[in-house]
Amino acid sequence: MSVYYMAILSWVLLYLFSSMQETLPWTHCGNETVVKGCPSTQKPLFEPCLPENLTLDGKPTDSLWIRAPSELFFHEVVTKVNPQVRFPGTVSWSLLLCLLGGWIVTYLNVIRGKISFRKTAIVPAIMVTLFLCAIFGTITSDPGFQNGLHYFFSFDWHSLRKPDMWNDAATQVALSLGTGTSLLQLLGRRGSKYRGLVHDAVIVILVNIIVSFFSGVVVFSCLGYVSKAINRTCIKFLQEGFGTLFSVVPAALANLPGSV
Predict the structure, then answer these.
(1) Which domain holds residue 21?
(2) Alpha carbon distance 249, 243 (integer Å)
(3) What is the per-residue pLDDT across 79-117, written as a single tens digit (0 to 9) for each?
(4) Number of domains into which the chain is organized
(5) Helix, strand or coil for residue 153?
(6) Is 260 part of any domain?
(7) Distance (Å, rounded) from C-alpha 182 to C-alpha 63?
(8) Span 116-145, average pLDDT
(9) For the segment 145-185, what is each residue's pLDDT rounded down to a tens digit?
(10) Which residues are annotated as a binding site for Na(+)?
(11) Does residue 114 belong to any structural domain of this protein?
(12) Does residue 223 fall inside a structural domain?
């Protein structure tokens, strides 16, 4: 599980370092993203979907949908996912350096003991919550976020027949319970000196569930805003795994007034 989260952290670090440029790379089609579906560097931030048989800038499109630059940046620059298993591709050195940096920072925090680790864990937890509140407060001032919230709270009974839905739900439950289980193991080392072990573990699980739910509200608010900006339905923007998060939120924040 640590390796799994560290891989995600490497993506975040790559976005962090990429944001230090004068022009955010996921707001336009640069040299690395002028591949499949990205029209040109002169086009707006959000591009509408175009059928496969149309031409753009005098060139035929070779993908079913024209995608936004933020989508291409995540798939073609950050993860560089190859759909064919037979061709694993090459090593992304920038992502490898970010992964190494994440492990080094984690090691430096853990090696100094639990006191140092506790201090470094509290600050990010509070900052993430404040950051989510800031994004939600900003995105709700722009049109379109209601579409994402409507899609988020709409229930599709036919989804209960899909095994993938149950798999995702079980994964979320396992991750939420995992925080409480880890806390039980950590506090259990103190033996009989600590009496509020179960109480604190339950609180951690509840806080994790609330923050996870609020994170979903924020992400789908951004999804609705971006979907309205490109005249695209929310369902067409949803992707597997973390694709929706890393494609929608950066695009939404970059297109807000005063962002870039």
Answers:
(1) 1-255
(2) 10
(3) 877 666 666 667 788 888 999 998 998 888 777 666 666
(4) 1
(5) helix
(6) no
(7) 45
(8) 80
(9) 888 888 888 887 888 888 888 887 888 788 777 777 777 77
(10) 176, 208
(11) yes
(12) yes
